[in-house]
Design brief:
With about 250 residues, the protein is mainly alpha-helical. It has one domain (about 5-225). The protein contains ten helices and four strands. The protein has helices at about 5-10, 15, 20-35, 85-95, 100-105, 120-125, 145-150, 160-185, 185-205, 215-225; strands spanning about 45-50, 55-60, 110, 140. The strands form two sheets. It has a two-stranded antiparallel ribbon with strand order 1-2. A two-stranded parallel sheet has the order 3-4. Strand 1 (about 45-50) and strand 2 form a beta hairpin. The radius of gyration is 18 Å and the shape is globular.
């Protein structure tokens, strides 16, 4: 169950520098655009939950205005008003995630793996079976992240994106990633990287409709088997989260 990026950390330093050389032109153009589009820093730093529930700092290119007004949700809504136009294009193209290659080289993340989640979502809404997705390093690409990109974002209305995320998307997205965790292999990782590139390229070329991922049937079966996840309402933030396994640690603040 070893993602390709696990081997990346053992390559000679000259080869480890390759991602920086390849991505540098994209990052330079993106940084200039961010500076011109919205005052503030180039990078956005966010606390996310990683391997075995441990927290780490994830890096992205900033795509939202620093002054976000009354919008404070950690979940990005469909047509979120906090996103400036250049930032929207960076998100569509996934260029905003290129700084996460630094997280990969540090060992916080893998190229392929479930997308790292916001700590409050894990604490308040993960069921016992969904903790299994934290047995591997989070990554840049996964079945759940592809589904979220092609289908999920349209479900997140701006009135309360976190509630919509929990009620409409979270269970299925985690089930898709759980299918990956249980079937992980280097061949599967390569296919997922190819699928991610194909979906992003199709979106940039104007495609707006995509078929369900091939893991969908297995994921829906997992949701049906998990009584805590099946058609659950959003958990009251004041409620205690389900007990975490003793070797998992989720602590700190966002």
């Amino acid at each position: 169950m070893t993602a390709p990026s696990t081997y990346l950390r053992h390559l000679p330093e000259t080869l480890q520098d390759t991602p920086s050389v390849v991505t540098a032109p994209f990052l330079a153009v993106a940084a200039i655009g961010i500076r011109l589009a919205s005052p503030g820093p180039i990078l956005f730093r966010a606390t996310r939950v990683g391997l075995r529930g441990r927290l780490f700092t994830m890096y992205k290119l900033r795509t939202m205005h620093v002054d976000q007004g009354r919008y404070t949700s950690a979940i990005t809504a469909h047509r979120d008003p906090r996103i400036f136009p250049w930032g929207a294009w960076l998100r569509w193209s996934k260029i905003d995630e290129l700084p996460q290659l630094f997280n990969v080289l540090r060992g916080d993340m893998s190229i392929v793996g479930p997308r790292p989640e916001v700590p409050s979502i894990v604490r308040q809404h993960y069921t016992r079976s969904q903790w299994e997705t934290l047995k591997v390093r989070p990554g840049l690409a996964s079945p759940g992240s592809i589904y979220n990109y092609t289908h999920g974002q349209a479900l997140l209305a701006p009135d309360d994106p976190e509630r919509h995320y929990v009620e409409r998307l979270l269970s299925l997205k985690l089930a898709l990633d759980l299918v990956y965790v249980r079937r992980a292999s280097w061949r599967y990782d390569v296919r997922l990287m190819g699928r991610t590139l194909w979906v992003v390229a199709g979106t940039l070329l104007g495609r707006r409709r995509f078929s369900d991922p091939p893991e969908m049937a297995a994921a829906r079966a997992l949701v049906r088997e998990d009584p805590e996840a099946r058609e659950r309402p959003a958990r009251d933030p004041g409620m205690a989260p389900p007990p975490s396994p003793p070797d998992r640690v989720v602590s700190g603040v966002e």
